[in-house]
Amino acid sequence: MFITMTTPTLPHFHQNKNSSYHAFTLIELLAVITIIGILAGLTLGAAGAVRRHGATSTAKSEVAALQAACDRYFADYNSYPTTTNSMPDPSSGYSPLASTYTNAGQVLFSNLVGSAKLSVAPSSKRYFEPKPAMVNTNPSPNIFIDPWGYIYGYNSNGTNAPLIWSTAGQTTAGGTNKWITSWPKM
After folding, report:
1. Which domain holds residue 141?
2. What is the mean pLDDT of each run of 10 residues along the chain (186 residues)?
3. Is 10 inside any structural domain?
4. Which of 63, 141, 175, 186 is the most exposed place for a label (fewest CB within 10 A)?
């Protein structure tokens, strides 16, 4: 008795030995496109979150640096740079581009940098050396801006520690819990 081994018969698609072209089905293509779309969505969403987190971290460090510069200013003059009230009213809406923000920002800038413009040599001691991205040079005197492009809020009567804040890109009423501030959260 002899045992004969045979090769299984393959479907017609795989028997074509003359062709090196193998096609994908429509379902396979749609599955691959769907997977690529899901991965792209996850990547772009994560990139936006990383960008927001980076801007928040930058604003926190800039607020802390401005606070430290104000403390050095206080050590020399026994007074903080004084401004009129620039505190916003979150219940009625506010604008981090309002004139009270601009006036307070100009006072803060000129006192900490020692001149009204970053490009001008200081006429008094320089307490803070800002990065160029932190300075809006359009108004004269210049002002400090946060990573979202808005003016840092500043308020001080000269004797109490100043309040320095960023609205974290918010320009409408409510949501002050996302602000970056120099005062402790309550």
Report:
1. 54-181
2. 69 56 83 93 84 91 95 94 67 56 87 91 92 86 90 88 87 73 70
3. no
4. 186
